[in-house]
Structure formats: structure tokens, C-alpha cells
């Protein structure tokens, strides 16, 4: 059985998608990451991994696994803060009672 927190999380997730807010935030994130050069940095890191391990010795799944932690940790803190502010602002507006 799902807990109340799981039900709330699912309802919030559905609301974000249905309202279009998730898509807006995803677009904002994509733009900020591109502006900061994050995409290029991640691409370079992937190329270096492939070069070091030789193309024949790396699968896409392995590359994704190795790059995921690097990708998450290399996102600029200002971008994370901006998204968090946007999410809080949306929740305050959408659920202000």
C-alpha cells in the first residue's frame, strides 16, 4: 500500500505535468545549462572516458552510469538555486489557500 507521502508526491508530480510547469522548468534548466557551458563540459568528459577506455571497451550504459554522477555534481550552484526558487514560487502560488 502507498503511504500518504507517496500519494502526495504522485499528486504533486501529476499537477506539475498537467499545469505545464514541469515543461517550463525543464526548458529553463536546458537553457541555463547550455548558457553555462555545462553541455560542452559533459560532452568533453564523455569523450575522455571513451578515449581512455577505448571505444570497443565501453557500452552506452556504462558511459551513462559513469557520466551521471559527474553531470549532477558539475551543475552550477546558481542554476540549482534558481530552479529551487522557481519551484517554491510556483508551489506558493498554486497552493496558496
Automatic annotation (TrEMBL):
<dbReference type="InterPro" id="IPR018783">
    <property type="entry name" value="TF_ENY2"/>
</dbReference>
<keyword id="KW-0653">Protein transport</keyword>
<dbReference type="Pfam" id="PF10163">
    <property type="entry name" value="EnY2"/>
</dbReference>
<keyword id="KW-0804">Transcription</keyword>
<dbReference type="GO" id="GO:0006406">
    <property type="term" value="P:mRNA export from nucleus"/>
</dbReference>
<keyword id="KW-0156">Chromatin regulator</keyword>
<dbReference type="GO" id="GO:0006368">
    <property type="term" value="P:transcription elongation by RNA polymerase II"/>
</dbReference>
<dbReference type="GO" id="GO:0006325">
    <property type="term" value="P:chromatin organization"/>
</dbReference>
<dbReference type="GO" id="GO:0000932">
    <property type="term" value="C:P-body"/>
</dbReference>
<keyword id="KW-0811">Translocation</keyword>
<keyword id="KW-0509">mRNA transport</keyword>
<keyword id="KW-0539">Nucleus</keyword>
<dbReference type="GO" id="GO:0005643">
    <property type="term" value="C:nuclear pore"/>
</dbReference>
<comment type="subunit">
    <text>Component of the nuclear pore complex (NPC)-associated TREX-2 complex (transcription and export complex 2), composed of at least SUS1, SAC3, THP1, SEM1, and CDC31. TREX-2 contains 2 SUS1 chains. The TREX-2 complex interacts with the nucleoporin NUP1. Component of the 1.8 MDa SAGA transcription coactivator-HAT complex. SAGA is built of 5 distinct domains with specialized functions. Within the SAGA complex, SUS1, SGF11, SGF73 and UBP8 form an additional subcomplex of SAGA called the DUB module (deubiquitination module). Interacts directly with THP1, SAC3, SGF11, and with the RNA polymerase II.</text>
</comment>
<dbReference type="GO" id="GO:0070390">
    <property type="term" value="C:transcription export complex 2"/>
</dbReference>
<comment type="function">
    <text>Involved in mRNA export coupled transcription activation by association with both the TREX-2 and the SAGA complexes. At the promoters, SAGA is required for recruitment of the basal transcription machinery. It influences RNA polymerase II transcriptional activity through different activities such as TBP interaction and promoter selectivity, interaction with transcription activators, and chromatin modification through histone acetylation and deubiquitination.</text>
</comment>
<keyword id="KW-0963">Cytoplasm</keyword>
<protein>
    <recommendedName>
        <fullName>Transcription and mRNA export factor SUS1</fullName>
    </recommendedName>
</protein>
<dbReference type="GO" id="GO:0005654">
    <property type="term" value="C:nucleoplasm"/>
</dbReference>
<comment type="similarity">
    <text>Belongs to the ENY2 family.</text>
</comment>
<keyword id="KW-0805">Transcription regulation</keyword>
<dbReference type="GO" id="GO:0071819">
    <property type="term" value="C:DUBm complex"/>
</dbReference>
<dbReference type="GO" id="GO:0015031">
    <property type="term" value="P:protein transport"/>
</dbReference>
<dbReference type="InterPro" id="IPR038212">
    <property type="entry name" value="TF_EnY2_sf"/>
</dbReference>
<keyword id="KW-0813">Transport</keyword>
<dbReference type="GO" id="GO:0000124">
    <property type="term" value="C:SAGA complex"/>
</dbReference>
<keyword id="KW-0010">Activator</keyword>
<dbReference type="GO" id="GO:0003713">
    <property type="term" value="F:transcription coactivator activity"/>
</dbReference>
